[in-house]
Amino acid sequence: MTQLGQMLLNAFLYPGDLVRRKVGMTVEEDGGMLRSIVNMIVWGTLVLLVWFQFFA
């Protein structure tokens, strides 16, 4: 993966990873569940806000 690709991936996964670290879970304990839920909420909300701002 290129450096730009890795940077974009880290930015995309940042909200869930931040919450996981704040809660004190390791990657093994989490299994991706908490990170996935948080990322879906954050990015889904952002997309909806942009959608309603420009298209509704």
Quickly list its features.
56 residues; mainly alpha; 3 helices; transmembrane; membrane
Describe the structure.
It is a single chain. The chain is mainly α. It has 3 helices and no strands. It has helices at 3-23, 27-30, 33-55. The longest helix is centred in the C-terminal third of the chain and has 23 residues, at 33-55. It is flat and about 40 Å long.
SSE layout and pairings?
Blueprint: H1 3-23, H2 27-30, H3 33-55
Helix pairs in contact: 1-3
Structural class given helices, strands, pairing? mainly alpha
Largest sheet: none
Percent strand equals: under 5%
Note poorly predicted spans: none
Order of helices and strands: HHH
Provide the helix percentage: over 70%
Task: Supply the number of helical segments.
Answer: 3
Count of beta strands? 0
Shape: flat
Cα(first) to Cα(last) distance is 37 Å
What does the oligomeric state look like here? Answer: single chain
Radius of gyration: 14 Å
Global mean pLDDT: 94
